[in-house]
Amino acid sequence: MLPGVLLWGCPRKEVEIVNANTPPMQVPIARTQLSEDEIQCVLAPLRSGWLVQGPKVREFEEKWSAFTGAQHSIAVTSCTTALHLSLAALGFGPGDEAIVPAFTWIATANVVEHLGGKVVFCDIDLDTFNLDVAQLESKITSRTKAILPVHLFGLAADMAAINYLAKKHHLWIVEDAACGFGARYKGQHVGTFGDAGCFSFHPRKSITTGEGGMITTQSSELAEKLRRLRDHGAAMSDLQRHLGARPYLLADHPDAGYNQRMTDIQAALGSAQMERAAEIVTERQRLAAVYDRAFAGLSWLRTPVCPEGYEHGYQSYPCLFQPEAATPESIPRINEARNKWMDDLLQAGVSTRPATHAVHMLTYYREKYSLKPVDFPNAWAANDCSISLPLFHGMTAAEQEHVIEQVLVRKA
Ligand SMILES: *Cc1c(COP(=O)(O)O)cnc(C)c1O
Fold first, then answer.
1. What is the 3-state secondary structure (H, E, C) of 275-328?
2. Does domain 277-408 have CATH number 3.40.50.1110?
3. Which residue ranges make up each domain of the chain?
4. Is the pTM of this model over 0.85?
5. Does position 11 have pLDDT exceeding 70, yes or no?
């Protein structure tokens, strides 16, 4: 008997095996890969005694701006706080409406609620899993203040169309680029199209600091406000004060801000990974291309699309399980078959997940806004019929071959 080892996302069942040297392959949905050098980098702030936001945060921010082409980068505690802070800094408040895709992580909608706003969902395009821009304008009312496009799974939303509508109706754009590392449209990195872009460093994302987030903006005025708001509204950061002429005097506070500062311990880890940022994206794209080729002939599995002009960052590898076309009648049937398939894959050592969730189907939003699955049919289909296969940099060829084999044994 093997000891019960818990691989992240993939509980290994106790199994009888013939040869103890060849345990059954278990491929998790994602696995954090840090080099020994990157792990060592975390020790420097601990030894220096400067643990909170300081020189390492500044270094991480500079590397982030260089990689994304953003004018300004502001590190915070998560993508959720990045979204919250960005909307707050722009002046979004009670009674204001924000348009949010119905298929995204719940945090995109939650921050609107946190600020007393109203969430207005818009359905997605089932091909890209991103906002259906053809429906966007019909969601705009006199109270609409912001659009929160999501670059889901590493594919940029249609920013040309979204920017056009935002300009026409004088709306703010806060990009949810949580999964957007390496995602570009016509060579331009996401997070630089709207007023602000928000990234996540949760371990499921391509660069990780445990928990953490980054805001990018092209506006120096907004950047200054964001830097103040993340730090209790202080006119000057602790580091600036300590390096200044009179470090013993406290700063003034022009705003009632928040504490959303990243620590230098986290930033040291993030900054170290930025040294191989391009390599991480290329490796993920290479793994995705191997899957694309292997599954090209399957009618019942639609692999991720990447339209002309787009570069996909492949935060994950979201597919659509489609043994038949998704309609309100067929979705429950497809969902049942997908769940059974996910179970079979897990038994065969392949961990999978639904790509993400339809937020309008989650209890809080369903009840508060009296919503039905069919109100956003594509988000419903994505919720019930999507499946993400394991993809992470550091995935071995043997692991990927195992996933491919296990997918291909399933007959249409
Ligand atoms: C991961 C994710 C978030 C939340 O990021 P945190 O850093 O965990 O707060 C928000 N939106 C999307 C689309 C995500 O995938």
1. CCHHHHHHHHHHHHHHHHHHCCCCCCEECCCCCCCEECCCCCEEEEECCCCCCC
2. no
3. 36-275, 277-408
4. yes
5. no
